[in-house]
Amino acid sequence: MSMRVAIVSRIYRPEPSAASSFLGAVADEAVARGHRVTVLTVRPPRGLDEGAPVEDVRMAPVLRDRSGYVRGYLPYASFDVPLFFRLLFLRRPDVVFMEPPPTTGFVVRLVCALRRIPYVYDAADVWSDAAEQVTSSRLVILVLRATERFAMRGARRIVTISQGVLDRIAALGVDRPAVVTGFGADTGAFLPPADAEAEVTTEPVFLYAGTYSHWHGADIAVDGFAAFSRSTPGYTLRFIGNGSERAFLEQRARELGVADSVEFVETMPSSELVPHLHRAVATIATQRPGTGYEYAFATKAYSSMAAGCPVIFAGPPNGPTGAYLDQANLEVRGGIVSGYAAESVAVAMAALAARPLSAAD
Predict the structure, then answer these.
(1) Of 350, 203, 358, which is closest to residue 280 (Cα–Cα)?
(2) Less Cβ around it within 10 Å: N or C end of the chain?
(3) How confident is the model at residue 68 (pLDDT cuts 50, 70, 90)?
């Protein structure tokens, strides 16, 4: 039976992110099964090719923060307020599949209640938990938690990535039926070129590709790189992406005397990112311990390894990313699980710089 599926998200491909990749995969699979998919999203940043999607992607202008990301009260409102009317007057779908923030969930619940449309809530993480790391305002936390609970309680189903997130959702008093989909990335988009077997690592570069927010704790990459550079100069730490911590990372690089060796490059589509991944010594994935996000998985590990690039993971020792790399290392040189400390990151960098992957690796 063919259905009309509406996907609602403030971020969608070609803008690179874990959410874009996941939602795009959902759209592709739905279309492949004969369903009609309409995506209500935003215009991507300049320079990103929209391509020719098989689904009906409807983009609207939106406010972005200084880093080019749709994040913050005004950017969210610039998407959520028009969304009320966009979804209200959309040809009636059979189901809506939505991506947070919770304010978007609030709007989706209102419109879907008015139109009696079931919706599915993609709870990749718990936003009110994350907010506790960046604000001390109890009022903000209480309002966000109430909004998030309201949005999830109205869903017909909840999709989440791990049992850890499911447990947190239950602790919030949400008892909706849930499906644990696991972690993922569109690894097909990151495969190296067909002639890549003849190539070896050619650039003395360590690469951080993706978002760098507070809970990512990417400053440990700068600290580790500075320690590594004291004994092994001539390397570059390159950040490709965006995030709220950019100014802090730039300041940290200056303080440690490595500003000339730390680069910041704007977000780029995966097709342009692949050569960076394929030529780098390693990518760095970070996750700040003690944030309550120990259950999160750094999906950039999948993307990096698909491109033939090992991963240095600096994060909680009991999280899923470290366990994944340990298991992968039984079969391939997947990377190094580092402690969340500058010296540990520096040691991992030195080990891979001394013995980078060969073409066969």
Answers:
(1) 203
(2) N
(3) confident
